[in-house]
Specification:
About 40% of the residues lie in helices and about 25% in strands. The chain is an alpha+beta fold and about 525 residues long. The chain folds into 3 domains: about 40-85 and about 195-385, 2-Layer Sandwich (BirA Bifunctional Protein, domain 2), CATH 3.30.930; about 90-195, Herpes Virus-1 (2-Layer Sandwich), CATH 3.30.40; about 400-510, Rossmann fold (3-Layer(aba) Sandwich), CATH 3.40.50.800. The model has no long low-confidence stretch (mean pLDDT about 95). Bound molecules: adenosine-5'-triphosphate.
């Protein structure tokens, strides 16, 4: 199946099974805003629980906070967002569509990379086992030609972005003949800066009202609470502060479902270290975060690091963890070494001393910061998309199954009486009452057993537990496994242990130590 078709199916499946709905749907929706349904909210909460426990429970020196969305507007001056949180936008006069100029150019660069990869794949097929990919990439004239063009374009692009040279960006688009994907024309407007922050007014009277922003990241809530947490928690460097919360960005181009939203949720952790030790901690956090992703078992080959060539002026190292989505490798998490930029600027703008006295060094300093920042919704999409399968069965039928990591599945087990009589529903309810305090379990009695199994497969329920007449005689049930579809007869007493082994968050977290 083409990746584009697959992605459409995934979006449709998310809606049909109560995971993700377009916001305000009965009013024809609101662009790039989505609601999570009855299954979606469970999956999302489980992702957050996994991150929160991994960060706070498993690290003695990391604590959490929950700061407000509204913050003093000067915070966004200090952080640089008022002046520099801009995207360069460009319109196509024929299609009336708006694009990010940098994204149009990045897509053009990616085309050269694709051409190179195609050459390499062709040669690999031709030469078989004797193929030396590294040598081919370094010497093949066609590959080198593409690479030279790519590097030239990249250098021009990097320079224009560095200087935020808007005319320069436009000239690149014209020189490389980049066309609008909708109209196919090069009828472009000028490139303009567009600030991504939403603003609103706080206060009741027009003249007394203050312009406030909806936070575009949760991180600043952590920075401005640095001293509060450090002092009240008697935290000693190195230590971290974690937070999960909503963030808002008025994205110019909202595409790809919940990948790029205008209201989304972030899980961020700022780790405060001694100046000079930040790159060591940056390397540690890269490793720790990748391990967290890989423990979910979605496939190690689906992850890669993308180290930033062009660093923000305040950063001295930055990387993205990219995940193979149906539309290619895309960023799900950023890890940044942000130096003392944020705390230093808040000290300057607030006029309050924000320093840490290090008892071991017997001196005060502004701590350096390593940030790990991951989008809940992008994480949701990566898990959801890679779990989706249309499986061909031996009997010729197809089943749609979500192979969600079991500890994250919305429903852990469905308990089903084979028939709706003879006391089987009561027995099923007894089992539910035994399990419901530890797990989200569901009672399901409608339709044939086969149909019920399919329904649970489609929402990713790891276990189906069927109660039949034999259950009344010997207290055993049939347990059916989502992925293998294998069934086994087990005693009801064994159910908690069976479930615990596969669906408990504890087992998942143990993989991280
Ligand atoms: P991009 O380059 O894709 O716009 P970014 O580099 O601006 O992302 P960060 O500012 O580093 O993103 O934010 C950290 C994380 O927050 C990202 O890795 C992503 O998972 C998430 N995120 C950022 N913007 C959005 C958005 N508009 N919708 C959903 N998630 C987002």
């Amino acid at each position: 199946m083409a990746q584009e078709d697959l992605f459409k199916k995934i979006v449709a499946h998310a809606k049909e099974y109560g995971f993700v709905f377009p916001s305000s749907e009965i009013y024809d929706g609101l662009s790039a805003v989505y609601d999570y349904g009855q299954n979606g909210v469970e999956l999302k909460n489980n992702i957050k629980r996994y991150w929160w426990a991994a960060m706070t429970q498993l690290h003695e020196n990391i604590v959490g906070i929950d700061s407000a969305i509204f913050m003093h507007p000067t915070i966004w001056k200090a952080s640089g967002h008022v002046d520099a949180f801009n995207d360069p936008l460009i319109d196509n006069r024929d299609s009336k569509k708006r694009y990010r100029a940098d994204v149009l150019i990045e897509d053009e660069i990616a085309k050269y990379d694709e051409k190179i990869d195609k050459e390499v794949a062709k040669a690999a097929k031709k030469f078989g086992d004797s193929f030396d990919e590294k040598l081919y990439r370094e010497t093949n004239p066609r590959v080198l030609e593409h690479k030279a063009k790519r590097d030239e374009l990249h250098a021009r692009f990097a320079e224009a972005m560095e200087k935020m040279d808007l005319e320069g960006l436009r000239q690149i688009i014209l020189d490389y003949g980049i066309v609008c994907p909708i109209s196919g024309t090069k009828n472009w407007t000028e490139v303009r800066q567009f600030n991504l922050m939403f603003s609103t007014e706080m206060g009741s009277t027009a003249d007394g009202a203050m312009k406030v922003y909806l936070r575009p990241e949760t991180a600043q809530g952590i920075f401005v609470n640095f001293l509060n947490v450090q002092k009240t928690g008697r935290m000693r460097i190195p230590f971290g502060i974690a937070q999960i919360g909503k963030a808002f960005r008025n994205e110019i181009v909202a595409r790809q479902f919940i990948f790029r939203m205008r209201e989304f949720e972030q899980m961020e952790m700022q780790f405060f270290v001694r100046p000079g030790e930040e790159l060591e901690w940056f390397a540690k956090w890269k490793e720790t975060r990748l391990k967290w992703h890989k423990a979910l078992g979605l496939g190690d080959a689906k992850y890669r690091f993308h180290d930033h060539e062009k660093l923000a002026h305040y950063a001295n190292a930055a990387t993205d963890i990219e995940f193979l989505m149906p539309f290619g490798f895309k960023e799900v998490e950023g890890i940044h070494s942000r130096t003392d930029f944020d705390l230093g600027n808040h000290e300057k703008f607030s006029g309050k001393k924000i320093q840490y006295f290090d008892p071991e060094l017997n001196k005060s300093y502004t701590p350096y910061v390593i940030e790990t920042s991951i989008g809940v919704d992008r994480m949701f999409l990566s898990i959801f998309a890679s779990s989706y399968e249309e499986e061909q069965l031996e009997n010729g039928e197809t089943r749609v199954v979500l192979h969600l990591p079991a500890p994250l599945a919305p429903v852990k087990a469905a308990v089903m009486p084979l028939v709706r009589k003879d006391g089987l529903p009561d027995k099923a309810r007894e089992i539910i009452n035994m399990l419901r305090f530890d797990y989200n379990v569901q009672y399901d009695e409608k339709d044939s057993i086969g149909k019920r199994y399919r329904r649970q497969d489609a929402v990713g329920t790891p276990f189906c537990i069927t109660v039949d007449h034999q259950t009344l005689e010997d207290n055993t049930v049939t347990v059916r496994h989502r992925d293998t579809m294998e069934q086994s007869r087990v005693a009801i007493d064994e159910l908690p242990a069976i479930l615990n082994k596969e669906v408990s968050m504890t087992e998942l977290l143990k993989k991280l130590l």
